[in-house]
Specification:
Number of helices: 23
Strand order of the largest sheet: 4-3-9
Oligomer: single chain
Amino acid sequence: RRARRTRDTAHVVAHAPTAFARARSARAHRTRRSRVGGRRDMSAYSLNHWVVSSDDDDDEHGGAGGADADAQQQHAQLFTAALLAAGQRAAIWSDCKDFVDTRARSPPAKIYEALKTSGAATCSVAARAFLEEHFETGPRDRRTTPELVDWRDEPNVALRCGGEKARAFARHVHDLWKILARLDADDYVDEESPVQESDGDCESGAGALPQARTTSSRIKLPYPAVVPGERFRETYYWDTYWIVLGLLTSEMPATALGVTNNLLYMVTTYGFVPNGARVYYLNRSQPPLLTSCVAAVYEATRDGTWLRQALPLLVQEYSYLMRSERVITVRDAETGENHQLSRYFANTTRPRPESYREDVEVARLATRKCDNPIAKVELKRKIYRHIASAAESGFDFSSRWFRDGKGLESIRTCDIIPSDLNGFMLRVELQISALAREALAILGPCESGYAERVYLKHLVTKFEAAGQARRRAIHAVLWDDAAARWRDVAFESHPGELVTEVVRDRSALSFASKSPFTSDYTPLWCGAADPNSEQAYRVVESLKTSGLVTANGVATSLNETGQQWDWPNAWAPTSHMIIEGIQAYAPREENYAKELAHAWLRTSHSVWTHTGYMHEKYDVRVGHDGVGGGGEYVPQRGFGWTNGVTLRLLDLYGFPDDDIVHGPSTPTESPPKESPASAKTAPATS
């Protein structure tokens, strides 16, 4: 069995460069064809330019150019404002995402021509008839179960559990990988539904480039995907990292390699990893954890050839993440240094197609007191960008993005320099440098690899320097010495200011929120403090007194707003980063990390026992059922990253003893009051 798993892993590795090469070739082919006419690709777009034309996403506003321009075109073809409004008017789907995930029965040109004459713009009956004719009845369920080549009935993480209760729990979570596995082909070729003509130059089979289809919003990926679950029926970017950790804990390196290759494939195709594998996500990304996926898979497989192929794609994604509209320059008068820090910035000023109804309503409420029609349109555009940028952050939604700390109407995501994002960027820079050093060691002194050695040495030097500069910037701008944690800082936008040239003095920044957030502690996991340093232990003490830690887990914030990334919800990724951050950088507090891990395992096991499901998030309050709530959609089950974190913590810390009753803190029914240090409104000097 071990030999078969090794062979299967090698097969996935061997086919990865082929898929990436085909993607590059097809992208070049599309570019060449567009220069020589491109009528087949552009006909539907040109015919209906009155529907999709907009200057909202031009280059000045961070618009995509080059590689991802073709992807943006697909996005515009499928989901125009007129079509989304018709879907809303028909009221067929209670969840807007179900509509945009539903496959069309007709190509875009036919759909738009029919839309113009259907009466769907003004009549709900006509809108319903139009959609029933041109779209299927709803999103397709999984029809084919992909073979997970390295699956085993009972992994070591289950065998090592001390009691039957723990073993049954671990086996169940492990079994969920088969349920969450998807073949993207399920949403594509079908004899009953016509599809738009493909390019005709793509091969079939494992690792082949998908044919160009515009009747499905899904981005077809070359390898089986493992999805979060329920309404999240496609690959999601930052979820994938914790899915990879879980798969590796389940001793499934080939599957983990495949889902990582899917992310690398999207970098090859679009120049970055979108929020998720849908064309309507191609205007934003998510927290950048691709390098962490590659590092985890490489550590498990030690495949140097694959690592050397992946490194240029990590550098390509980094170039996207460092685009000028995504970077804020902060001038430090004390040191004379100009710090480059990152922000979330979505390339759109329109409602999100998957949450069209919700976004339109938020914009309506936020602009209801604005009497100037031109100013109202401009304000709505800004709100839509702030909303999509919050979705890019993964914290959709949280009071950390709200000016008043209460509601979405005051959202200002793009005017905030986030502590967690800059921690993630630091981690990216440090990991690329470390992986390049690994690749150098693998390459050795052979003559034939001279050019590659020069390139790898350049990466080591460049990203080591970038990481050092980022650490200085994080400490100078985001570190609050009085509160002993990193914090988001906000700045005021200036009328007429180009989003690609935002420069602020450090003295003009202020802390964005009063409440502590779990995101304040993410930089510890990312390497913003030295291991075993006084700063690292101060951060742990800050966490202990923050009020976020309860017997049932670590709550995301102390603000009770009804948003899902606020009190009283605990989430798998933030819990994991806090626990492993303590373990790696404050080793004398390992027992505290273990207490936090056991609190998570106890809560997830208890809710599983009572509901039969693993959940997206958990309610830490006493006297509740433990199922997390809030936000713009109903609570989801499945659940990819919850399963990955649960297996990882079981493997590291074991199942909590039956006689453990209390967790790391006294249970709380309502959020604790903020500490005085949390109420500061201006950055402290170092």
